[in-house]
Amino acid sequence: MNFDASYLHYWGKSKKTITTGDNYHLLVYHCLDVAACGYIMASENRFGMRDVLAELGLASGFGYRWIGYLFACHDLGKFANGFQRLAAHPGSPLVLSAAGVNTPGRHDTLGFWLWDKLETDWLDDKPGIFPEISSDQRDEFIYALDIWMAVSTGHHGFPPEKPNDCCVTAFTKHDIHAANEYLTALGKIFSINLLPAEWKASQWRKKLQQQSWFLAGVMTLADWLGSDENHFSFTSQPMPLEEYWIIACDKARKALSTLPLSSNIRRYEGHQALFPFIHSLTPLQQRAADLDISSAGPQLIVLEDVTGAGKTEAAMILAHRLISAGKGKGVYVGLPTMATSNAMYQRLGKAYRKLFSDTARPSLVLAHGARHMSTAFRQSVWQTDKSQNMHYAQNDASAVAECNAWFADSRKTALLAEVGVGTLDQVLMAVMPFRHQSLRLVGLRDKVLILDEVHAYDAYMVKLLEGLLWFHAAQGGSAIVLTATLPATLKEKLLTAFAAGAGFAAANPALDAGYPWLSHLSSTGLHEYPLQTRQEVKRCVAINWLSDIDRALEIIYRVVEAGQCICWVRNTVDDALMVFLRLLNDGKIAQQDLLLFHSRFAYADRMTIEENTLAWFGKDAAPETRRGKVLIATQVVEQSLDLDFDWMISDLAPVDLLIQRAGRLQRHIRDAHWVCKSSLPDERRSPILHILAPEWQEEAEEGWLGEALRGTGYVYTDHACLWRTQKLLRQYGEIRMPEMARTLIDGVYEGQIPAPPGLKGIEDDVYGALLSQRAAARQNLLQRDKGYHRDASDFLWDEGREFSTRLGETSVDVYLAWLDDDGQLQPVVKEGEFRWEMSRVQVRASLWKQNVSRFSLPDEALLEAFRKRHHRPVAQVLLVSEQGEAAYYSKRFGLSAAS
After folding, report:
1. Which among 778, 724, 786 is positioned nearest to 755, based on CA atoms?
2. I want to staple 116 with a disulfide (CB 3.0 to 4.6 A). Which of 3, 163, 241, 245 is the partner?
3. 376 pLDDT more than 50
4. Are 306 and 418 in contact (CB under 8 A)?
5. Under DSSP, is residue 13 helix (H, G, I), strand (E, B) or coil?
6. What is the rounded CA–CA span in Å between residue 78 and residue 122?
């Protein structure tokens, strides 16, 4: 091999400042570093890479060598003189900056253009790549090679842009010659002479397109690994590529050894390992333990049952059985909100280890609480040196910078942990044109996906959820859906999407499905099972209507005077704050017996309030702790939290949410002294749900909700849904579960009751918005069969376009901070490793904009420094006192808006 080949005069990594050691890393050596990582990952089956190659018929020596060749091509675009001039190294033997060149795009797109150029020369029978393939066959390999090279060059989170004539201005003839010479050398190192004949077949290429999403994610991981200077020190002294390849492989093995190994799964031998406290399974849990899951391929299981039926435990039993049967290697639990994620984490904190062998150290990540991250997972190779590697041009980020930004965000790392708990949003981003979505798919590939509270999503998110289930099933992944109140049409949509992704026949759920109900979709078809309900969780809650706030307050005072506890669930933060302040100002209830819980608290304060809420109203709360306690809350308490109130008031809300809220009313059985007991009867007064609602109007018109519930009308825009809810609950006068579940849910959501003429216009607008939401979601979903390519997105992965997992108003991440004596920002949380994350509060963009003039903010220089340091390019910082207080923020009230 030519020791002074032309390709040895290009840098691939460059330091910001001169330090000890070499100041730059030769491009071809960096490419081989990354290639070695990919090669070892494939041969060791890291992240299931060998399994994917096996599906393509490439789990062999040639397949591993091909991955090495492919990954060694990832930075071809850096051969461009337009890129090389971004860092100067005077006195070095590197190529000099040439006149007349420019940098019309990022190096990933330049690389894809260069491959297209060399490929065109190859078709013209010019010397270069794969010389042993005969000229008359070359064009038959072009389609497959382009799919492979989009994976390789698109390693910065997006597929490369389509080649265009502007890219030629970045290269000199010498650059193109050097790249061609390098590829020729690669072919010899990896013994890539001929290509498999199957690559010519359209059916095989379709499989490659489908797997290209996963391969693109692994390509990114290999680039991040190979860019870590802690393992791959810079080398600027030339040596033969064969010699450096041996060095790179040794370094790659050491780098990969720092990653946590996959944990061994514990064989399922009954539920006791996971839940030793469960002595007798509920009917739902028993069905989960007995369900036949032996059929090949992915499986979808939908669990519909009342609050208290043990759905979470049933889902974990199923998940353990599935991974024990080789149908997964981990679990991700996706929930609607941060609060539900926190509660689920607490419930799984002990049980998750029992999914794995006693000697295993599985990683568990809570997507909203970085303090809970597995130490082994955090202290892995991903914690790279943040100071040394250059960030290239403004729009051309280095691999190290991207790696740091990704792993600084615990919401993303949850997807790569063996057990992750977080919001559904994080997994939805895997099937939308977000940067690094393919990395999310890598994290999901071998996981059983548990989706809780799926009834909580709007039409836009439901359509995205359909896309997620389609993708997940197509990857061979199984899913478990949990719900207490699922409309029939929504269940049908989810079953249909999963069946389509898995390649199953269309699923047709029973029209007369009962409740509780279990639906099991697999390669053998859809099987549905009615379930029994334990007497202890059957519920009959009477309804009482309130038409004004004063009457609601009177109930609160009576309950407190009787030494009992009560919760009022309000539909907006402002309404909750208003009632809470009124109770404080009235002075009839001791301040220490009042608690406010909503979403506008910093994470640390919110966790404290959540812990207090559970301490006051949880199952094990002592009678003296519960006595006379009042909680004013928003929707944060209606899901996942195991709370038990003696009395409850709720603002009018859609019927499924009222059922959820009523599930927290006398949830556990207690005696006359409020001591929890194991068997019926409950010795408290029969439960009553008091609902604040307008006076009943059979012919309701726009504005019928009135001033007291004006905020409710903004939150729940389908006023006909609210009207139907009130009509049905007035008609029946109670919520009786499980008997009335279908009657109430389908009565409100399946259009069985016509809306009054005065609300018809609003209903039509809502329906039009629903269709628009689903259309918008459909446009925002990626098309898996088109592969990792710009064409897979309706918007061609437009990086300037804002994509969101939720419609409606965008939110702003606000970090609470104080200025120390040196004028530096300090988080209000003073202890712990993740103090900034714990100091974060999320608010609506409009609320921030409306109130920003009354907030105290750091100067622009401090804010920009914060954003860069913490990889939060659009974050805001709000100044408070060192104690975390200000006129606009309080640990007791949260962030308040101007009244």
Report:
1. 724
2. 163
3. no
4. no
5. strand
6. 21
